[in-house]
Amino acid sequence: MTHRKAPDSSRRSEASRRAIYAAALALVGETGYAKTTIEGIAARAGVGKQTIYRWWPSKAAVLLDAFLDLVEQAADRAAEPAIPDTGDLEADLKLVLRATVDELNDPAYDAPARALAAESVVDARLAAEFVSRLLEPQLQLYVKRLTAARETGQIRAGTDPRIALELLVGPLAHRWLLRTLPLTHDYADALVDCALYGLAPRGAPRA
Amino acid sequence: MTHRKAPDSSRRSEASRRAIYAAALALVGETGYAKTTIEGIAARAGVGKQTIYRWWPSKAAVLLDAFLDLVEQAADRAAEPAIPDTGDLEADLKLVLRATVDELNDPAYDAPARALAAESVVDARLAAEFVSRLLEPQLQLYVKRLTAARETGQIRAGTDPRIALELLVGPLAHRWLLRTLPLTHDYADALVDCALYGLAPRGAPRA
Amino acid sequence: MTHRKAPDSSRRSEASRRAIYAAALALVGETGYAKTTIEGIAARAGVGKQTIYRWWPSKAAVLLDAFLDLVEQAADRAAEPAIPDTGDLEADLKLVLRATVDELNDPAYDAPARALAAESVVDARLAAEFVSRLLEPQLQLYVKRLTAARETGQIRAGTDPRIALELLVGPLAHRWLLRTLPLTHDYADALVDCALYGLAPRGAPRA
Amino acid sequence: MTHRKAPDSSRRSEASRRAIYAAALALVGETGYAKTTIEGIAARAGVGKQTIYRWWPSKAAVLLDAFLDLVEQAADRAAEPAIPDTGDLEADLKLVLRATVDELNDPAYDAPARALAAESVVDARLAAEFVSRLLEPQLQLYVKRLTAARETGQIRAGTDPRIALELLVGPLAHRWLLRTLPLTHDYADALVDCALYGLAPRGAPRA
DNA sequence: CGGTAAGCGAGACGGTACGTCATGTCTTAAC
DNA sequence: GTTAAGACATGACGTACCGTCTCGCTTACCG
What we know:
4 copies of one chain form a homotetramer.
Chain A: H1 14-31, H2 38-45, H3 49-55, H4 59-78, H5 89-105, H6 107-122, H7 124-151, H8 161-178, H9 185-197
The structure holds a DNA duplex.
């Protein structure tokens, strides 16, 4: 086994790490992910290339850490990690989906998030990281709220919260990723309505 | 304005075009999109680089044409361009979604389709092409079937077929793109059930 | 056998070749061989690095060709390829050795010649090229003149012209390479005297 | 003026110094001077890089000290620091030149000596050190013996011992450095003969 | 005899150059 | 006039060393 010897992370330069995050996010925002190069990040951060290669295996990995850092910084400021439970599931979901729509429309998030999503589509390794560190924690909030809703009878007894959540989030992601149609609050509301009450007429018998 | 002189497409070599498609699909399948290069495609196709640059603006554009060609070949063989209408919407949708699941799980389609999707996420220009030439024709089949269903009362009167379709297709795409969970027939069925009959208990009053 | 495919030299850019020679000689003269880099030569010549790597295996090989070109240009202008034969061997040799001293003291020749000599000392492959293409042709002039001298009785019958030539050229090279003492016309003269008439007193019996 | 503070050599680690010498000589012998790096020497010696940079200004300086140490060790064992004076100059010189030939053909000396010579050709600073510490002491032995020879009439009265010595040593160095022809005992003998008795026929009048 | 300051092994750092690869443009010869 | 072939300028890749620096640690000297 010829593992490359792991660097000693206790000696790691915090200043360089932060400069690299800032440079990566700035460049992806300004010139796009494809035109962002590791050399460019290093130059912008005032850092040697090797300092990047020492700590990250790829451009995508740098950006993932940078983006996670950005998200955590924002989360620390906002500090509201759960979906509210007012008892009115429909209202609670609309609130959250509207917030998600706003976030996806925010240019500061859009560029790096798209880049990471695109890389994940094509790179299963990165996808696993992306999902487990960024996406899944968010989805678990839905799981929690929907499980609570099931217990109080707000949603049908047999429903799998995982599938329920995807019914809400999947269409949103679809529009965002492929830009088929604009992402609006109205769309978020319509999605919640359809998902909760179904496409079939209320009176229709269950098949 | 110095427009590059448009090549004379009547003199274009059909053999080269087909060889390029085959080479592009083969290389993307074998080594992945990122490692596939225009030089590599040219070499594999036994073609000069310029022949590619003359007719396509980018690697992604080559692959898009190649993939469309592949899809059309397959469609010509199968020749079943519409979603069936047996009167039983639930059954019809499950049939189609199961078929879609099978297609997405087919390695011959997976690699190029992923690559095109990923590029589209990040390149709005390509996305427009990808959507209009590949995705939208497929989605229109749903629009048609759902519109018919609305007219016969199989789905609620006010429903927007576009949103209805995304409720079905969005979650599928989500799982496929980010590989969060496996894509199975059961999942397709569950999606149709949830979408048609809603998450909320049948007895619940419409909000 | 995995030979790297040989490039097609009929398509080679003459302009690039000349620019590379000029850049290489200029940089070696200005900053020294050690600080001269292939990137630097390429940049100065307005040429891609690959154009250098395509045609030469190393920095030293570039410089050798550049220097040979320089020497040939100069030789074309001077066009006096042989050691004169006035019948007076001593005078002829002093003339040539003084000219060699002047050449070695000329800064335009000194820098690249030193660099090539130094590399040759350490790289046997290069040394073979250096010797056969640059040094040996010059030494053959001595061989010719000394052989003629032997036939006319100007030097002893049994003498090996090769050794005779090294007796003259070796000490010159020694002073030049290691800069032990200055290289002057007087030194050249003294060398010829010693070599021709020997260190031992004229009257001394041959051992 | 910001002189770098001189390190306290009384605290210097003798073990490290010796390990560095051994590593330097070993690496130059095994992989050649060009591929020998300071990092490599440090790693092989089990020493921090700074320990090398603290005490030596360059790779060449390390190797010079290492080689001098090697030569001194050998000299301490052999302990015969002068050219013999049996009264027969020719025999004495042949003895010494043959010994020099053997030394230059010894692989243990060849690699580092070549490297130092090559660096000296190109780096005047190092050359001065190389000459004064290694070469000159050896040449002075010739000066001494040749001066004695002049006093006893074994060589011509007006002869400069410096030039005489170079007549012997220069050609040897020439063959060794550029590997033009093999270095043999016969060659050493021929050199002494030519240098002592001259190229011109014995009967020829002095010019 | 305990404090402190040096040398030390280790290795992260900002850099520079390496030699390779692919880009997109250009030129040439063959058809 | 398109084609296969491939040289060209450009520029990023990922690696290797450079020489400097900062960490703890040992180790001697000195107050």
